[in-house]
Amino acid sequence: MKNLILITFLFSLNSFAFDGYDIEGREETINHFVAEGVPETPLVEAMDFFVRKGHLLDNKRYITIGDFSQSSKEKRLYILDLDSGELQREYVAHGSGRNRVGYPNGDRDHDGYLNKCKHSKFSRRIRLVKHRRYGMTRPGFMRVDDTYFSSKFNYNSMEGHNAIRLTGLESSTSDVRRNAVVFHEASYVKDYSKIQGRTLGCPAIAVGTMKNVLPKIKGGSLYYSYAPQC
Q1: Interatomic CA distance for residues 120 and 65, integer angstroms
Q2: Using an 8 Å Cβ cutoff, are 192 and 93 in contact?
Q3: Which listed residue, 2, 95, 118, 171, has the most CB atoms within 10 A of its CB?
Q4: Is the dihedral of CA 177, 80, 206, 218 positive or negative?
Q5: How many CB atoms lie within 10 A of CB 25?
Q6: Does the pTM of the predicted model rise above 0.85?
Q7: How far apart are CA 187 and CA 207, in angstroms?
């Protein structure tokens, strides 16, 4: 009898625990991560895409959200563990969108906020840029795919592979693979609150943080680059 009471008590405790992501637990999952500090709008949009397009993903444990409506001074990269309910946050840089004469269209005044995700048609016409998204942050959904070693992004912060390729899952991200938009570390991204440096379109994170990011999100997880201004 005592064993039965103990089992019943333990089961009642477990019923209040976060039970990961499933269709029946959608609201519970959203409420949990909102309470942890994840912005609600991109979270809901990412969850909805996850439900509709989950068949495109191989790693269904993690969802990563880069909230580029926030300043680069904020930890605006959110890595959600749908199994444990844990949340990891990191600093992430956005694209400068520099043209051939060095003008940064993506973040014109370097104030930490992303302004644009596309160059003008005129810039493309007079060949100031290779293509309209050159150097720009891509807004939308992507799959975090295979890893590789890059000497360009090697800061001796980890052994083995140090960058992760991305694959676009909609028109706004369709060019990420052919234009080498990848997750990587960068010396101009610091692991403290400041206006971070700007990339050539990649979501770059601070040196030393990739070793705690790559093993989780590699292999086909969802990445949502949230940029409502774009």
Answers
A1: 27
A2: no
A3: 95
A4: negative
A5: 15
A6: yes
A7: 6
